Known about the structure:
InterPro entries: AAA+_ATPase (IPR003593), ABC_transporter-like_ATP-bd (IPR003439), ABC_transporter-like_CS (IPR017871), ABC_transpr_LolD-like (IPR015854), MacB-like_ATP-bd (IPR017911), P-loop_NTPase (IPR027417)
CATH superfamily: P-loop containing nucleotide triphosphate hydrolases
Organism: Actinorhabdospora filicis
Order of helices and strands: EEEHEEHEHHHEHEHEE
Protein name: ABC transporter domain-containing protein
GO molecular function, one term: transmembrane transporter activity
GO cellular component, one term: plasma membrane
Bound molecules: adenosine-5'-triphosphate
Amino acid sequence: MIELREVGRTFAGPPEVTALRDATFGVDAGEIVAIVGPSGSGKSTLLNVLGLLDTPTTGTYHLAGVDTGSLKERQRTALRASTLGFVFQAAHVIAHLDCLGNVTVPLEHLGIPRRERAAMAEKALLAVGLGHRLRARPNTLSGGERQRVAIARAIVHEPKVLLCDEPTGNLDSENTASVLELLESLVSGDRAVVIVTHESDVADRAHRTVKVVDGVAAALAA
Ligand SMILES: Nc1ncnc2c1ncn2[C@@H]1O[C@H](COP(=O)(O)OP(=O)(O)OP(=O)(O)O)[C@@H](O)[C@H]1O
């Protein structure tokens, strides 16, 4: 699903900074891969490349069989919207919309017909265990539930890859465990999950770990 070959990212500066060098690893469908490493090591740079938010200066990145280096900006944007889902540390839910409304937002941007949106949003909210809170406003939900809404929003268009940046960083241990269980349930034969994390208990639940040190990403044994 993801295939990086000798991917590097150098920021021109001055001063010039090579934030990522020679990253070579793959992520298969059905896998959860954790990206770990010290602060400033290049994890965000790597995640930005994986998320098609940034372009490598060297190497090749294939996503879902597409050589992303050959794409024009508009094609990158379309591939990002259709193939990727993003989960961040903060849920970033919209306060004045209920759960269904929040999860429907990306479908508007994807041009999904209005009549299909509610059913898709409801399905995603059911998948994250919030089928009973469809009409709830975010301020009536717990932090863990809000993060579930964010995850439902990230999977509503059924992306092949879910990219998560510290998805449990704001949660207590109980909610962390249940969000991890949820992420495990969302990996399937045609979906991969990538999690950037500082938390060793999160990394322990992944199938594999990629460690980034000083811009060098190395896949660790399972
Ligand atoms: N736009 C940029 N221009 C110049 N240097 C940058 C830029 N973005 C990141 N860097 C540098 O690249 C290196 C890697 O940064 P990155 O944000 O990827 O690390 P990180 O592992 O995600 O850190 P943290 O865990 O603290 O978020 C750092 O030295 C950072 O200062």
